[in-house]
Amino acid sequence: MSVLIRPAGPADAEDVARVQYLSWRSTYDGLLTPRSLARVGSMWGAAHWRATLERVDDVVVPLVVENKHHGIVGFATCGRQRGRVPFYAGEVYTLYLLPTAQGRGYGTQLMVAMARVMMARDLRSAMVWALSTNHVARRFYERLGGRPIGDRTGRLFGERVPEAAYGWPDLAVLAWMQPQK
């Protein structure tokens, strides 16, 4: 299967919004309230993503994974860590795949690509936050070598949500991982 991972641009906004919406509806059903799920489409639609992708700079790097036969099936963003977790310079901000694209190695390929992008920007370590109740995401990060490094209570649409952090103290390990299905 021919797959391309490339930087995202404003022309990708509708596809990115579609991937995020469908991924959230599938992944977070039962993990977030129906009210929060309903807000995803209105808050992060194509207009939001077009504006976001028009003002991309070296701080936030958006990537898409494109399947030759199905178009954009996933996207991710990364950059400098936004919080205050010691010892981790970079952060994976988002990683979303269409439900039909999950389990096919695309997420691993995006993680490897983000590790390489961050290392090219001299960010040698990175972390990611995941909902504590999202066991699929947590196992995914653990399979890729992410170590549990902390917990917090975040806020999403005014809803308090428990989150777990995973970290890679040396991104080189992830950057040179061979993606497998």
Automatic annotation (TrEMBL):
Q: Name one GO molecular function term.
A: acyltransferase activity, transferring groups other than amino-acyl groups
Q: Which CDD domains match?
A: NAT_SF
All copies of the N-acetyltransferase domain together span: 3-172
One Pfam family matching this protein: Acetyltransf_1
Q: Which PROSITE patterns match?
A: GNAT
Among SUPFAM superfamilies, the record links this protein to: Acyl-CoA N-acyltransferases (Nat) (SSF55729)
Q: What is this protein called?
A: N-acetyltransferase
The scientific name of the source species is: Roseiterribacter gracilis
